[in-house]
Amino acid sequence: MSTTDRKRDSDESLQEEVARLRRAVEELSVLNDLARSIGASLDSQQVMRTIIQRSLHAVQAEQGVITLVASDPVSDTTTLIRTQLSTSEHPKFHLDRALLGWMYLNTKPLLVNDPQHDERFRGVHFDASVRSILCVPLVVKSALKGVLTAYNKKDQQGFTPGDERLLAIIAAQSAQVVENARLYEEERLYIKMKEELRLASRIQSDLLPKEPPQIPGYDIAATTIPAEQVGGDYYDFICCHQNRLVVCLGDVSGKGLPASLLMANLQATLRGQALLTPIPKECLARANRLLFNSTSPEKFATLFYAVLDLERQSFCYSNAGHERPILVKANGEALRLCTGGLPLGMVDEWVYEDESVDFHSGDLLVVFSDGIGETVDEQGEHFGDERALEVVKANAHFSAGGLMERILDAVRTYSGNSLQSDDRTLVVVKRM
Questions:
Q1: Exposure pattern of 371-383 as b/e (b: 16+ CB <10 Å)?
Q2: Alpha carbon 350 to its chain's center
Q3: What pLDDT score was predicted for residue 89?
Q4: Which tens digits make up the pLDDT trace of 288-345?
Q5: Residue 348, Cα to own-chain centre: how many angstroms?
Q6: Backbone angles phi, psi at 316, to 5 degrees
Q7: Residues 140 and 111 placed together within one structural domain of the fold
Q8: Model pTM greater than 0.85?
Q9: Same domain, yes or no, for 33 and 145?
Q10: Same domain for 134 and 270?
Q11: Do residues 280 and 317 touch, judged by C-beta distance below 8 A?
């Protein structure tokens, strides 16, 4: 090799080394700039927008997307958050599920410079304006948390292995920051939700009677124990007309906050109707119509509604699909009260029936929600109506409050370590 050739080779090697060092300096500059920009931020959207901006500049792409993903690749909610920026006027692209599935399976960079003909994605339809794609994983503790995708290299030649390497480094440096920002925002939302639930629970508690009415000759007790912070069970005592007291207990469909809102709706409806008529079947017919017209089709409520006549020692009741209350007479005879009709809100019009029952000294009425009978033990067996009846008859000599506590104690003992899955509500009325 001549001296000239050796010098030319040496110059070329030097130029390549200078170019390599220049790229390394540029990469370090990009990473340093990115670290300063996102290091102090806890706003996940702002963090992701900054990462995309720096990435588009670094690899000279037209458009960038960060897609945060769930841990389950087959979940229908795979894409949790999508943040997107574009330097072009083209329609915004979304990460195809086939590409996302590939990233789940391989968890490594993916470079596609001819998406329309790439054998790895045969049968996948890409937008005609997508010329090149570069995907890199956002990985935290070996788990895929998201995908950073760049679309369309600006020089029309496609992305290079150098672009792939740089974008992979950006993703590796950014993944934990993105995850921290996301977790911080989730924590803030969780704290906000807890506070809202606490306020909802307080409002719901304020809607229920503070204490049972004190009426000469009667002993009354009531309580509700929600399965969640707020519940869908409802009980009430409403003074209506002369010497009459409405005693009611309802259970609306669902659980949690939606059920509590429907419960408040039901309470307002019944309090209004109770003042219009003392006849249970008329009150339930009107309440049913109002509830049907103001709620979605899947919403309904079971209800036991009784009007206690304090002078005649009797009550008239109607049962709208609720658990059958237990009436224990002074002589020990036990009756189940089922006259009524469908749960409220299931159909637009329904003709309810009611029934009058004598309520003499020593008689006892126990109304409860299905959270009592449907309590399960550790083997999954229900507490059941018959067991509830046995507990009531065995403890009928106690005061209303004492009987209520013994029913609840029996349910808690039966359930053992099983979690409470439904609200438990009781109303006990005893004629002295």
A1: bbbebbeeeeeeb
A2: 33
A3: 57
A4: 999 999 888 888 999 999 999 999 999 999 999 999 999 999 999 999 999 999 999 9
A5: 29
A6: -115, 130
A7: yes
A8: no
A9: yes
A10: no
A11: yes
Q: Is the pLDDT reported for residue 81 higher than 60?
A: no
Residue 287, pLDDT score: 95
Strand arrangement of the beta sheet that strand 218-225 belongs to: 218-225, 424-431, 364-368, 326-328, 334-336
145 plus 205 within the same structural domain: no
- Using a 10 angstrom Cβ sphere, with 0-12 exposed, 13-18 middle and 19 or more buried, the burial of residue 413 is exposed
C-alpha of 272 from chain center: 31
Is residue 277 domain-resident?
Answer: yes
Structure tokens belonging to residue 75? 């979940």
> What pLDDT is stored for residue 87 in this prediction?
57
- Residue 85, pLDDT > 70, answer no
DSSP state of 352: -
pLDDT at 26 over 90: no
Indicate whether 169 belongs to any domain. yes
Beta-carbon count within 10 A of 53 CB: 15
Q: Tell how strand 364-368 and strand 326-328 pair up.
A: antiparallel
| Backbone CA torsion sign across 93, 94, 96, 101 | positive
Last residue of a domain, one of 185, 216, 239: 185
In our burial notation (b when 16+ CB lie closer than 10 A, e otherwise), range 255-285 reads bbbebbbbbbbbbebbeebbeeebebbebbb
Distance CA 102, CA 359 (A): 72
230, 232, 238, 241: CA torsion to nearest 10 = 150
Residue 232: C-alpha distances to residues 174, 267, 284 (Å): 45, 11, 18
Residues 309 and 316: their CA atoms lie apart, in Å, by 8
**Rg of the chain in Å (alpha carbons):** 34
Helix, strand, coil fractions of the chain, as percent rounded to 5:
40, 25, 35
Distance of CA 103 to the CA centre of its chain: 29
For the record, the structure tokens of 151 come out as 């679309």
| Cα–Cα dist 414/373, whole Å | 11
Supply 50's token pair: 């900054």
Condensed to tens digits (0 to 9), the pLDDT of residues 106-149 reads 999 999 999 988 888 888 888 888 899 999 999 998 889 999 99
In a domain, 152, yes or no: yes
CATH number for the domain harbouring residue 359: 3.60.40.10
